[in-house]
Amino acid sequence: MPIHHLGFRVVNFSKTRDFYLAALKPLGYKIVISFHEGKVLGLGATFYAPDFWLVDPNVITEASDEKPAAAGPMHIAFSASNRAQVREFYEAAMYVL
Q1: Residue 70 φ/ψ, nearest 5 degrees
Q2: For residue 6, what is the enclosing H or E element?
Q3: CA distance 15 to 23
Q4: Secondary structure of the chain: what % helix, strand, coil (to 5)?
Q5: Residue 74's closest CA among 6, 18, 1, 21?
Q6: Per the confidence metrics, is the pTM higher than 0.90?
Q7: pLDDT tens, position by position, 75-94
Q8: Which of 6, 50, 75, 96 is the most exposed place for a label (fewest CB within 10 A)?
Q9: Domain ranges across the chain
Q10: 35-73: string of b/e by CB count within 10 Å (b at 16+)?
């Protein structure tokens, strides 16, 4: 399974946003989509597929259960061809734990 996208909550959102926009520009990356008044950004090299996300740690989302999360946790999503692969991935991961 290839990596589909990555997401990071960052301490200094403005500084980190500016850094990645400049650093990734030569690779064709730009802001593809934003939520929560620009505090959640999806960056990508195409207009329809953000694969690198930056999140201000003070943003409240469903995933954070209505509480701001601390900076640091990472979100990684893998691509799967079908639901069977997803189940196999889950079962293998749970076996390791």
Answers
A1: -70, 155
A2: strand 3-9
A3: 12
A4: 35, 30, 40
A5: 6
A6: no
A7: 677 677 889 888 887 888 78
A8: 96
A9: 3-96
A10: eeeebbbbbbeeeeebbbbbbbbebeeeeeeeeebebee
Identity at 12, one-letter amino acid code: N
Distance CA 73, CA 91 (A): 23
Q: Which residue has the tokens 């996208």?
A: 5
Which pair of structure tokens corresponds to residue 81? Answer: 């061809």
- CA–CA separation, 31 vs 46, rounded Å? 10
